[in-house]
């Protein structure tokens, strides 16, 4: 869970209540594939497993059972989300992709997850369909995402991990 619940975990800079909150709380659907991607990241940060299951397309939902999501996410501290590229996924589209990198800490190590996710829109709602992991690498000279103010190479180091698709 992020330390400041007022700022949305997705990195938009907006407050949670004006960003991903309405989607996660069921007040309004995500308007774009990227908005759904961001809300799903925020749901992982907040442990909102029911939302993650509900926003997975029916045809792939059995590949992402709630218990597996909960177990994998239990030891994760989510640090940052970077949207690398989007294609389609606008309100009038029926599909779209989001290439993202999520940075997280697991077992004391900074890890990255880069995925090209596919989304579909059915009956006015966006759903995560599936994703393909891509090689992700953090710049060792960038500031460490843990917030220490030191460079990554002098702080938490770097490792990569291949968690289950479906962020």
TrEMBL record:
Q: Where on the tree of life does the source sit, at the highest rank?
A: Bacteria
- Ranges of residues in domain YchJ-like middle NTF2-like: 32-131
Pfam entry (one): YchJ_M-like
InterPro entries recorded? NTF2-like_dom_sf, SEC_C_motif, YchJ-like_M
Q: Which ranges does the record mark as transmembrane?
A: none
Q: What is this protein called?
A: YchJ family protein
Organism of origin: Biformimicrobium ophioploci
């Amino acid at each position: 869970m992020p330390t400041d619940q007022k700022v949305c975990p997705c990195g938009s800079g907006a407050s949670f209540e004006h960003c991903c909150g309405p989607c996660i709380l069921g007040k309004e659907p995500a308007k774009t594939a990227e908005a759904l991607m961001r809300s799903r990241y925020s749901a992982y940060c907040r442990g909102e497993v029911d939302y993650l299951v509900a926003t997975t397309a029916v045809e792939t939902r059995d590949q992402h059972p709630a218990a597996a999501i909960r177990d994998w996410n239990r030891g994760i501290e989510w640090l940052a989300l970077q949207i690398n590229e989007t294609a389609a996924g606008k309100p009038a589209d029926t599909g779209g992709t989001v290439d993202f990198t999520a940075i997280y800490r697991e077992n004391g190590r900074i890890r990255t997850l880069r995925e090209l996710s596919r989304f579909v829109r059915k009956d006015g709602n966006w759903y995560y369909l599936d994703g393909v992991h891509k090689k992700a690498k953090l710049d060792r000279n960038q500031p460490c995402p843990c917030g220490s103010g030191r460079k990554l190479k002098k702080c938490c180091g770097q490792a990569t991990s291949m968690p289950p698709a479906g962020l």
